[in-house]
TrEMBL record:
Domain of life: Bacteria
Ranges for domain EAL: 24-286
Coiled-coil positions: none
Protein name according to UniProt: GGDEF domain-containing protein
Length: 288
């Protein structure tokens, strides 16, 4: 908070806030060069089928190996990249790199250890949605890598689509028509009207971690159980699959399976990790 005393409006009273602001500024200005220097990398977290426990794919989660600050999570820099517009080239890089990775997994699976390709989930920021190159970039990346559109899922947060007009939905519709899955991420944290779901070109609901957390207690709060049960049945009646985030215990996984959720993701199965790790997990799974 700036002090007004002495008319010096730039004197900062809170050194921690000051340091945070300096870091934020430093990170923001370092972003473009970081992309050029290849300081970003992607960790992959498996998506597991709740019915049979098999690994069906992974979500790509970007990190920044900063030369001074070490590994930074996306919450530290995605908002800055969105603010400066760097999210467009950064997001394109994440998409290309993770689809290429999915292609590599596909090649390794050519030896018959698994009969279905691993799917890749990639997060999209709202800025990417409104960027005119999205559809073409995605088509080009899929063509270049030879990955089938139905092996790709783009995750868009519920809040990004609240009140979205037709112009914003058009590229998503186009991608969905091509066979790309669209997932509504962090579902349940926004205030979207459930009936509104019909209007959106989504095929997957990702139930936010806050729901999973309420399953931690045993027995879980009966009202929470009813809410999740209701969301799952509504989703299924609209032909949407349900993925749950943040599963940390076997009890949660079991509860969510009973409630009818289709796919799960969380530390109980694996933390986000390097691509080789996913390959190991999927391979163990495929060979028993
Ligand atoms: P998200 O898409 O909802 O991703 C799930 C987040 O939950 C990830 O955090 C993941 O590491 C974390 N998580 C997974 N399992 C568990 C669990 O069992 N317990 C707990 N407590 N957390 C778990 P992360 O990697 O820090 O990413 C945070 C957010 O940053 C993501 O949330 C996503 O919105 C955004 N993000 C990540 N990568 C990208 C990207 O390439 N582009 C864009 N636009 N956003 C990204
Ligand atoms: Mg996500
Ligand atoms: Mg999520
Ligand atoms: Mg989330």
């Amino acid at each position: 908070r700036a002090k007004s005393a002495g008319g010096n409006r730039f004197e900062l009273a809170d050194p921690e806030a000051d340091a945070r602001a300096i870091t934020r500024h430093g990170l923001t200005t370092a972003l473009p060069a970081a992309l050029d220097r290849g300081e970003f990398f992607i960790e992959y977290q498996p998506l597991v089928h709740l019915g049979d426990g098999s690994v069906r794919g992974a979500e790509a989660l970007v990190r920044w190996l900063h030369p001074q600050h070490g590994v930074l999570g996306p919450d530290r820099f995605i908002p800055l990249a969105e603010h400066t517009g760097l999210i467009v080239p950064l997001g394109r890089w994440v998409l290309e790199e993770s689809v290429r990775q999915a292609r590599e997994w596909g090649e390794r699976y050519g030896d018959g250890t698994a009969d279905r390709p691993l799917r890749i989930n990639v997060n999209l920021s709202p800025c990417q949605l409104s960027h005119p190159g999205l559809v073409q970039d995605t088509v080009e990346i899929l063509e270049r890598t030879g990955v089938q559109p139905d092996s790709l899922c783009l995750e868009v947060t519920e809040s990004a689509l609240i009140g979205a007009d037709n112009d914003l939905l058009k590229p998503l519709r186009r991608l969905a028509e091509m066979g790309v899955d669209i997932a509504l991420d962090d579902f349940g944290t926004g205030y979207s009207n459930l009936a509104n779901l019909r209007r959106l070109p989504v095929s997957i609901l990702k139930l936010d971690r806050s729901f999973t957390q309420s399953m931690q207690r045993f027995p879980a709060d009966p009202v929470d159980l009813k809410i999740v049960e209701g969301i799952v049945s509504l989703a299924h009646s609209l032909d949407l699959a349900v993925t749950v985030e943040g599963v940390e215990t076997g009890a949660q996984a079991e509860q969510l399976r009973i409630l009818g959720c289709d796919t799960a993701q969380g530390w109980y199965y694996a933390r986000p990790g390097p691509p080789e790790r996913l390959h190991e997990l999927a391979l163990v799974d495929a060979t028993g």
